[in-house]
Amino acid sequence: MAGRLGSIEAVIRPARDDDADAVSAVIQKALRETNARDYAPEIIDRIALSFAPAAVSQLVAKRTVFVATLEGRIVGTASLDGSVVRTVFVEPGVQGRGIGRRLMAEVERTARERNVAVLAVPSSVTAETFYARLGFRSVRDSFHGDERTIIMERTLAPPSTACDAPCVPGPERLA
């Protein structure tokens, strides 16, 4: 599951129990530096509480969680909870370099293996364009107080026709 990121090797692997502190740090940094552009500070503070190391440790125990590492350092995470993608975050300094796409490819591969037909993601306003580029479509908005989340879905190709990366339909597949 290794790929190239410039001259640095990026590895996607299952999260381990001892990854919780590093995963929490990536999430906290992404929330405060990236998501903070689209959400008020009190919303970011409320969300951040859900991703303290102890809470991340519980998520690793109950979901299928993946991490992205560069030179052994965790720089991203994504998880699958049944048919729902959750907790996709990439460290701000390496965003836009394909790490999120690679994490999503692993989540989708796992979902296909589990015969998930439709993958859903409760997207932040910040990540809506990212998911749309991967072929997800907006289904509806959801609100938790003044926090807006966009519920998005994508039909997965069956395992026999699956792609190695997230399958984004080309013009020939849209006809």
Tell me about this structure:
- This protein has 175 residues and is α+β, with helices and mostly antiparallel strands.
- It has one domain: Gcn5-related N-acetyltransferase (GNAT) (Aminopeptidase, 3-Layer(aba) Sandwich).
- It is 33% helix and 33% strand.
- The protein contains six helices and eight strands, in the order E-E-H-H-H-E-E-E-H-E-H-E-E-H.
- The strands form two sheets. A five-stranded antiparallel β-sheet has the order 1-2-3-4-5, sandwiched between helices.
- A hairpin with a 2-residue loop joins strand 7 and strand 8.
- The longest helix has 15 residues, at 99-113.
- Residues 1-8 and 168-175 have low confidence and may be disordered.
Q: Can you describe this structure in just a few lines?
A:
The chain is an alpha+beta fold and 175 residues long. The protein has helices spanning 20-33, 41-49, 53-62, 99-113, 128-133, 171-174; strands at residues 2-5, 8-14, 64-70, 73-81, 84-90, 118-124, 137-144, 147-155.
- Please compute the radius of gyration using only Cα atoms: 16 Å
User: What fraction of residues sit in β-strands?
Assistant: 25-35%
Main sheet properties: 5 strands, antiparallel
- Cα-to-Cα separation, first versus last residue: 32 Å
Number of helices: 6
What's the number of domains?
A: 1
The number of strands is: 8
Query: Helicity level, as a percent range?
Result: 25-40%
Query: Widest sheet: strand order?
Result: 1-2-3-4-5
Please report the first level of CATH classification, the CATH class.
Alpha Beta
Mean pLDDT: 85
Low-confidence stretches: 1-8, 168-175
Q: What's the overall geometry?
A: globular
Per CATH, the architecture is 3-Layer(aba) Sandwich
Give the topology string: H per helix, E per strand.
Answer: EEHHHEEEHEHEEH
What is the third-level CATH name, the topology?
Answer: Aminopeptidase
Class derived from helix and strand content: alpha+beta
